[in-house]
Amino acid sequence: MLAYTYKGKGELRTEEKPVPRLKGPRDAVVKVTLASVCTSDVHIKHGAVPRAVKGVTVGHEMVGVVTEVGSGVHDVAVGDRVCVNVETFCGECWFCRRGYVNNCTDENGGWALGCRIDGGLAEYVRVPFADTGLTRIPEGVGDEKALLAGDVLATGYWAVKVSGQEAGDTVLVIGAGPVGLCAAACAKIKSPCRIIVCEELEERRAFAKAFIPEAECVSPADMAKITRSLPRGGADRVLECGGTEQSFEAAWKYARPNASVVIAANYERPQVLPLPDMYGKNLTFITGGVDGCDCAEILRLIAEEGLDVSPLFTHTFPLREVERAFALFESRSDGVMKVAVKP
Fold first, then answer.
1. H helices then E strands: how many in the chain?
2. Half-sphere exposure (CA, 13 Å, Cβ side) for 21?
3. 334: CB partners within 8 A, 6+ apart
4. Would you say 35 and 120 are in contact if contact means Cβ atoms under 8 Å apart?
5. Could you give the count of Cα atoms lying within 13 Å of 193 in the half-sphere of its Cβ?
6. Which of 163, 171, 176, 291 could bridge across to 187 with cysteines, CB 3.0–4.6 Å?
7. Fold category of 155-287 in CATH
8. Residues of the chain whose pLDDT is less than 70?
9. How buried is 183 (Cβ within 10 angstroms: 0-12 exposed, 13-18 middle, 19+ buried)?
């Protein structure tokens, strides 16, 4: 089968690999029907994910059909259409029992797919802990609508959840990339007073406004004035999805005193937390690592409540052209937001 493989810093390559087989009783094998490229895959290419294993098939955003299950799998069966969770988790360790599945202590726990074990930019993928790592897709929900529920939409949902957002809050989302727009879409469900999306690129601000018309889509240059106009001197909840030094600084700067600041972005360099400048704001910072254990609820919201982030897919490629798909996504050219890859 074709598989897009990490060869070392700066190099990914399409290779032929054997179709994966079960390795344990809790495994399943899934025939991938649609996948996507994530910014985390770009970080792997850049050498910014030290735990990524050379030779691993990348990709952790995929849906498909179960073709094989181990004897210990009870919640999915051969023939089921499933969404694959970005994280594999045992469901039994101290962290898993408390919902902190990103920190599952099993050797295959946490973010393993496409990082430490073969992922889904391929024709097939083996998923450990299939009962927790696979979620059946509801009837009537297509592949594009379901595809992001296991990772980037799960990240946006997690960011809103851990922020403690309440009805009537002002929510500031920094970065109008895929994670930021998924976070904004999930924040909208919680009945905020205002959603402000801060994005440097005019093209992405326009995309964000079309995607969420209720949002105020502004440039970083506007934020100081907007913050002064807010009744409590800043946003109640800040969701940092930009992943740059400037967006990290904006996250604490434009939060009101005693706000929550969720760092949902991934950075390629260390960031500085200037505590003297922040003194007296009494902010609560929450960082992650999405705990991706809400896939069933996200799919329910898609099926029953109209949550739909499929407009983020601006381009589609066949798997044999995955290198083109990756290059386009990495370059952020041609108005790309997300690329779908179809085996």
1. 12, 15
2. 1
3. 315, 328
4. yes
5. 10
6. 171
7. Rossmann fold (3.40.50)
8. none
9. buried
The span from the CA of 101 to the CA of 291, in Å, is 5
Instruction: Name 37's Cβ contacts closer than 8 Å, sequence gap at least 6.
Output: 59, 61, 121, 322, 325, 326, 329, 338, 339, 341
Does 2-151+291-342 carry CATH code 3.30.720.120? no
CA dist 154 and 287 (Å) reads 15
Compute the distance between CA of residue 190 and CA of residue 163 in angstroms, rounded to an integer.
12
pLDDT confidence of residue 76: 98
Q: Mind giving me the DSSP string for 295-334?
A: HHHHHHHHHHS----GGGEEEEEEGGGHHHHHHHHHHT-T
| Three-state secondary structure call for residue 119 | coil
333, 319, 338, 336: which is closest to 5 by C-alpha?
Answer: 319
Amino acid at 289: G
Q: Is the CB of residue 131 less than 8 Å from the CB of residue 210?
A: no
Classify strands 134-136 and 124-127 as parallel, antiparallel or unpaired: unpaired
For the chain, report the end-to-end CA distance as a whole number of angstroms.
Answer: 10
Question: Could you say which DSSP state residue 139 is in?
Answer: T
How many C-beta neighbours within 10 Å does residue 104 have?
Answer: 25
Residues of the chain with CATH 3.40.50.720: 155-287
Range 138-145 contact pairs with CB under 8 angstroms and sequence separation of 24 or more = 138/299, 138/300, 138/302, 138/303, 139/303, 140/303, 141/299, 141/302, 141/303, 142/310, 143/33, 143/34, 143/63, 144/34, 144/310, 144/313, 144/340, 145/302, 145/308, 145/309, 145/310
Q: What pLDDT score does 186 carry?
A: 98
Report the SS3 class of residue 225: helix
Residue 296: count other Cβ atoms within 10 Å of its Cβ.
13
Query: Amino acid identity, residue 131?
Result: D
Q: Rg of the chain's alpha carbons, rounded to an integer?
A: 20
